[in-house]
Amino acid sequence: MIITLLTFYIFIVMSAVAKIHMYWMQGGLWPGKDKQDLINKVIGQGNIFPSALSCLGVIVVFVVMALFPLMTYYNFDFGFMKAYTSYIMYFFSGIFFLRASLMFIPRLEQRAHKIFIQYNKRYYAPLCFSLSLAYLILAGKG
Length: 142
Fold this sequence. Notes:
- By secondary structure, the chain is mainly α.
- It has one domain.
- The chain is built from six helices and no strands.
- Helix 1 packs antiparallel against helix 6 and helix 4 (about 85-100) packs antiparallel against helix 6 (about 115-140).
């Protein structure tokens, strides 16, 4: 039961995050009011938003991260990768753990915009920690 919930939790969240990146790729500004506000809230520093190609790359990665647990759950035949399924889940877990924890390093936190730090502590880090834990549990069950 928990495996089912975690699998679909990851799929739904990562699909939603990929869709938000698609929206940004097409010029959307939410949660910002303008381009600089979006950069401050989402990236945390600078004044240039990533290119459409960069956004597309992130979207592809997030779609893979969304589909991989679902395909594993439904026993999709990965061929030679079947033996590495747990390691891939551990890798995904590690990525989200690093993303969630890096902004708590004081030196990195000092370089980020104040609103980004606020959003990171309120939304981004908890979401990343939850995804990390979900991938970690799925890796242990693999």
